[in-house]
């Protein structure tokens, strides 16, 4: 975290106040020492009272400086909190964008591989909704469209349809490799 910087004006005012307070206390101690030597001197008593009033006045100024310092600190904290929130939002937006891009890439690759492997499947036509041009007309009401129809507008399928397509593909693979007349790769069958 970055450090809070006090404004130059406030810093100068605080240093001046501290020096004034130090001098007023020193003056008060000198007056008290003189008053101990002659306790009945009225001029010294007035000087002590005057030094005490000066210390009180400087203390009140110090209280005002402390309030200004608190206000600056609150403004700094508010700025810091705003920046943390902004950074958090930016980080979440960045993560979400990356996740969406990854999902789109995966969806595209899955769609391509699924369409490439299942286009030859006769059951694909049975599972997907009819793709005739009149079927893709825009429905008037959203509740008129079923979920599978909605998904096919965007070239998508439900999880169940996808699993069923994958199962049929795996079944075709098993049947084709189990067939002794099927040549797999460059291997020759011994007859």
UniProtKB/TrEMBL annotation:
User: Which parts of the chain are coiled coil?
Assistant: 66-106
Positions of region (Disordered): 168-191
Q: Which UniProt keywords apply?
A: Coiled coil
What is this protein called in UniProt? Answer: Uncharacterized protein
């Amino acid at each position: 975290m970055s450090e809070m910087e006090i404004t130059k004006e406030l810093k100068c005012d605080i240093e001046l106040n501290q020096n004034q307070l130090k001098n007023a206390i020193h003056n008060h101690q000198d007056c008290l020492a003189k008053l101990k030597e002659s306790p009945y001197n009225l001029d010294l008593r007035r000087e002590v009272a005057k030094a005490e009033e000066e210390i009180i006045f400087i203390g009140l100024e110090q209280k005002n400086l402390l309030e200004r310092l608190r206000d600056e600190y609150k403004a700094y904290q508010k700025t810091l909190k705003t920046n943390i929130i902004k950074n958090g939002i930016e980080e979440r937006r960045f993560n979400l964008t990356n996740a969406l891009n990854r999902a789109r890439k995966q969806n595209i690759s899955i769609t391509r591989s699924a369409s490439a492997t299942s286009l030859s499947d006769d059951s694909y036509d049975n599972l997907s909704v009819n793709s005739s041009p009149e079927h893709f007309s825009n429905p008037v009401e959203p509740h008129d469209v079923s979920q599978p129809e909605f998904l096919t507008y965007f070239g998508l399928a439900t999880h169940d349809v996808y699993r069923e397509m994958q199962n049929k593909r795996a079944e075709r693979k098993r049947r084709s490799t189990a067939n002794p007349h099927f040549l797999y790769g460059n291997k020759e069958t011994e007859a």
